[in-house]
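Treating backbone geometry as a discrete language has practical consequences that deserve illustration. In the encoding step, the backbone of a single protein was reduced to a row of integers, each denoting a local shape. The amino acid sequence and the backbone structure tokens for this protein are reproduced below.
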Amino acid sequence: MLGSLIYFICAITIYQTYMMNPTLVRQPNTNGWRERRKQCQTRLNAMLRELSKKQNLKQQLYLLHQCKRMKELPKGLEIRLPKNLTRCERSKSIFLNTNTKILNVAISELNRKLNRVKNNLCATKMIIEGFNLGELWYKNTIRWIEKIAIKENWKSRKCLQKKLKILKT
């Protein structure tokens, strides 16, 4: 759906360009810009998906770093000890050490995923630049896609902020 939104925005831009300069309509399509733009659409959709993933991973990473700073652990990562072991002092230290290790592993896993997404974004940007659609068009389109990705992840950001508030109390 968002990919079609990007295509719609670009189509409006093209329409406005032709309305401002009607002589462009009469000129034959010698350089194949429209065809290259259609071929580029799938890469733009992929870029939007990757940017959404990047935003989501950053928010999750922020939540885990805040948990680590507050020395709290989200319920989904916490381990449970049997009731007969909860009374021992040794088991409490093992419990705390294990939970911190689990949190560190979760943070490193999110960092690894974030780096993979960043690499995919760089590759996608290079492919889009290879379509040779113009520098101004490229900059504007990247800016639009980033804004759409930020708006799309607003709900997940609110959900993670709510989880953090619950952990703080």
